[in-house]
């Protein structure tokens, strides 16, 4: 500023534009404010129309109680509202909005039209252009309110240039719309974009049914119902099984007293409850609803009311964590949610809190839990067959030797005893057939178990493979991490294995969310060797990568379309983890040898795709130091 200016009152138009900067960040913010107003008006049907991601048009129409002509002009003025009247009401906010700034702020940065009728007979409409009232006239319309916002931010170019592409802004609008729809299952929601219906949530749906509209069946069918209450607080909802975790945190939804929020405390409680059940880069699916006394939560800490603050954070954290842990362990202490409409009669939002108007299930007296899908048996069928069959199923090139000087590894084809092989150094000369050694003996794996850089000794704790190295050292290999690396390399190498046409095309049902994901991955999938044709609600598979069997290719596609991850490498890592052997699975000696040989041919074999070590080894000197044989 070149010279000092005197202090003076800002003009109304500038004040409204400054307020708009706090409330209206992008089209999704407009949608949120308008839909929340409709819910506060006790609407039973809400219809939203978008164009150009909301920058061209955001229109919200409802059948709420409406407003008369005398109220419309007040509605577009700052700090005018019907939702709070006293400071005491502000301390226990029972509605979505309460500052009286939203409509005035939106009208200051757009071409804004509002029409409303309280009785379905006489209505009135106002048009406001960039904060200036242009017209006021009577209209004929049904009971309710219709608000149209066009050309958002055209008078504020600095704000307009920070908007993303229409597709990105449209996705953000859809996310906000979905979060609001999940909190009020008794209300009918409809979203139209680009001239077609995108989402429809019917009144009376269950939470699971509403989630099934936007989440793929592979996720929603395995969701676990949770419910926990203590000291007047209650949390309920649906959580995903650890086996269905994904690579992005975009399916973690919270609502506090019916208000969708993004809260760090609740997120920490979720992560703590899943601790030890997920890999570091995996995220669960969660839709949780917390209800508590409005006096115990402050919703006025964020201009857009997207964050909240709890009076007793420790109690809330403990309640949410306990609900998830009990759900995962299958030991819910209270009744679980029934799979039926989560609806209680809504009270008037002007006198009752959002906790009263938000939908809540009737909890039955007896304990009841809806069965959920358990993770499928993950052990590959090939591991139950001969090692030759297993090695063949991997379809990887001939693996290099375990050490550079060792001969190529070949899978043994016989499990008959080989008396020419030297016995284990710590095993007795003869073992009765009725005795079971503590370590699974690998002395009967057939020719070639030794003389290749290592000798397989056996399996410990049905998880680790013991190896004696030629130089006299000892190594321990994690079977799950090793199999992960084998499968990951197989999926990665499938990119260069050409394409295998199918005599009869396979069909894959396609959920709307999966169809969108397919459009994003279509080019990369074609490069991998797939030939795919999208036909409405199904996907036809005409060719698969040469390195994958049709069954594995189908499973790979399902994971790609169900998991929202940043790149295919993350999909491969996640898929290999789920297909791999698990800790606690016993292996026959020939099965273990086939795994070792396949793993020895992998690139970056020292670590699994998630970064965990596969092999830990000790030289003779290391062992001597461990037993303090050397100083």
From TrEMBL:
Residues 211-329 form the DNA mismatch repair protein S5 domain. It comes from the Bacteria. Residues 456-587 form the MutL C-terminal dimerisation domain. InterPro entries: DNA_mismatch_repair_CS (IPR014762), DNA_mismatch_repair_MutL (IPR020667), DNA_mismatch_S5_2-like (IPR013507), HATPase_C_sf (IPR036890), MutL/Mlh/PMS (IPR002099), MutL/Mlh/Pms-like (IPR038973), MutL_C (IPR014790), MutL_C_dimsub (IPR042120). Residues 336-444 are annotated as: Disordered. Residues 347-360, 384-396 have a biased composition (Polar residues). Residues 365-380 have a biased composition (Basic and acidic residues). It holds the Pfam family HATPase_c_3. Keywords: DNA damage, DNA repair, Endonuclease, Hydrolase, Nuclease. PANTHER family: DNA MISMATCH REPAIR PROTEIN MLH, PMS, MUTL, DNA MISMATCH REPAIR PROTEIN MLH1. Belongs to the DNA mismatch repair MutL/HexB family. This is DNA mismatch repair protein MutL. It comes from Oceanidesulfovibrio marinus. The lineage of its organism: Bacteria, Pseudomonadati, Thermodesulfobacteriota, Desulfovibrionia, Desulfovibrionales. The gene is mutL.
């Amino acid at each position: 500023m070149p010279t000092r200016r005197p202090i003076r009152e800002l003009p109304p138009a500038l004040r409204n534009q400054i307020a708009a900067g706090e409330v209206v960040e992008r089209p999704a913010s407009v949608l949120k404010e308008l839909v929340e107003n409709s819910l506060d008006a006790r609407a039973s049907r809400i219809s939203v129309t978008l164009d150009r991601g909301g920058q061209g048009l955001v229109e919200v129409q409802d059948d709420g109680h409406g407003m008369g002509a005398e109220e419309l002009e007040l509605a577009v003025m700052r700090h005018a509202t019907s939702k709070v009247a006293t400071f005491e009401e502000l301390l226990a906010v029972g509605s979505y909005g309460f500052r009286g700034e939203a409509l005035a702020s939106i009208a200051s940065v757009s071409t804004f039209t509002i029409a409303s009728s309280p009785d379905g007979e006489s209505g009135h409409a106002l048009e406001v252009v960039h904060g200036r009232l242009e017209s006021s006239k009577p209209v004929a319309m049904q009971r309710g309110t219709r608000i149209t916002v066009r050309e958002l931010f055209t008078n504020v170019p600095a704000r307009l240039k920070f908007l993303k592409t229409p597709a990105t802004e449209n996705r953000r609008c859809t996310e906000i719309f979905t979060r609001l729809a999940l909190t009020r299952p008794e209300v009918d929601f409809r979203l139209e974009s680009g001239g077609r219906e995108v989402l429809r949530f019917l009144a009376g749906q269950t939470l699971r049914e509403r989630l099934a509209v936007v989440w793929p069946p592979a996720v929603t069918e395995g969701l676990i119902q949770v419910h926990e209450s203590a000291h007047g607080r209650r949390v309920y909802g649906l959580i995903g099984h650890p086996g269905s975790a994904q690579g992005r945190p975009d399916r973690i939804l919270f609502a506090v007293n019916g208000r969708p929020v993004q809260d760090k405390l609740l997120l920490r409680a979720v992560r703590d409850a899943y601790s030890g059940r997920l890999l570091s880069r995996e995220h669960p699916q969660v839709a949780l609803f917390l209800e508590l006394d409005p006096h115990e939560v402050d919703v006025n800490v964020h201009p857009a009311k997207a964050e909240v603050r709890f009076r007793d954070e420790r109690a809330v954290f403990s309640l949410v964590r306990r609900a998830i842990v009990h759900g995962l362990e299958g030991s819910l202490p209270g009744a679980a949610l029934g799979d039926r409409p989560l609806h209680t009669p809504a009270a008037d939002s002007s006198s009752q809190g959002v906790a009263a108007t938000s939908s809540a299930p009737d909890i039955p007296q007896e304990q009841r839990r809806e069965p959920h899908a358990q993770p499928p048996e993950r052990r590959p069928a090939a591991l139950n067959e001969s090692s030759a069959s297993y090695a063949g199923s991997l379809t990887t090139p001939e693996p290099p030797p375990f050490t550079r000087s060792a001969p190529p590894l070949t899978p043994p084809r016989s499990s008959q005893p080989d008396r020419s092989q030297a016995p284990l150094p710590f095993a007795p000369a003869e073992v009765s057939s009725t005795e079971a050694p503590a370590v699974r003996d690998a002395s009967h794996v057939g020719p070639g178990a030794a003389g290749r850089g290592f000798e397989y000794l056996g399996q410990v704790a049905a998880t680790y493979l013991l190896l004696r190295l030629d130089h006299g050292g000892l190594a321990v290999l994690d079977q799950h991490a090793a199999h992960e690396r084998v499968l990951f390399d197989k999926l990665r190498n499938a990119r260069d294995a050409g394409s295998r046409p199918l005599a009869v095309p396979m069909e894959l049902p396609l959920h709307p969310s999966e169809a969108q994901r397919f459009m994003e991955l279509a080019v990369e999938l074609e490069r991998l060797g797939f030939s795919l044709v999208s036909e409405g609600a199904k996907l036809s598979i005409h060719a698969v990568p040469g390195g994958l069997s049709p069954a594995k290719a189908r499973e790979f596609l399902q994971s790609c379309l169900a998991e929202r991850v940043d790149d295919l490498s993350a999909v491969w890592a996640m898929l290999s983890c789920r297909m791999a052997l698990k800790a606690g699975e016993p292996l026959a000696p020939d099965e273990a040898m086939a795994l070792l040989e396949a793993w020895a041919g992998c690139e970056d074999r020292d670590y699994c795709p998630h970064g965990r070590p596969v092999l830990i080894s000790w030289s003779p000197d290391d062992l001597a130091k461990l037993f303090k044989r050397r100083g």
